[in-house]
Structure prediction request, 158 residues.
Amino acid sequence: MAVTAWWYVNAFETAFNKEIDFITDNIAVSLHTVTYVPNQDTHDFFDDLTNQLATANGYTNESGAGTGKLLATKTHANTLNVSTLDAADPVWTSSGAGFTARIAVLSDVQSAVTTTDPLLCWTDFGQNETASGGGTFTIAWNASGIATITPADAIGFP
Prediction:
């Protein structure tokens, strides 16, 4: 299974506009079915997302506006021209029929208003992942962090 992750392009604009503070804001991860098709260039706020799992069978929304599970133990580090965001691995305990997800999306849910909650990045698990009744659904972030930015390239001027 090839797990892939991407930044939403507007994450950088909203960060530069001081709309995102990864450490102090409420950052949430939401789970979506395979039918959500991320658009890196046009999806900018939570209201652009579709096919989030329903609150049932152990999948819960704890971030106010139904936008997923809040990240805990968030960190930010800068090392050797790489800026890294990380947090504890989120865990859901399934019940009943369990649930299935394909895509996880990180968003800043500080405002708790889906039309102004900026998206950061998403991960495609590469296949549907299922938590059966009584089992756990854990997103094990990469050992080197959830997401990285490498600003080591030279800036081009006209």
In short: The first helix runs from residue 10 to 16. The beta strands are 4-7, 27-32, 69-70, 75-79, 82-86, 91-93, 99-108, 119-131, 136-138, 147-149. The first strand starts at residue 4 and ends at 7. Residues 4-149 form one domain.
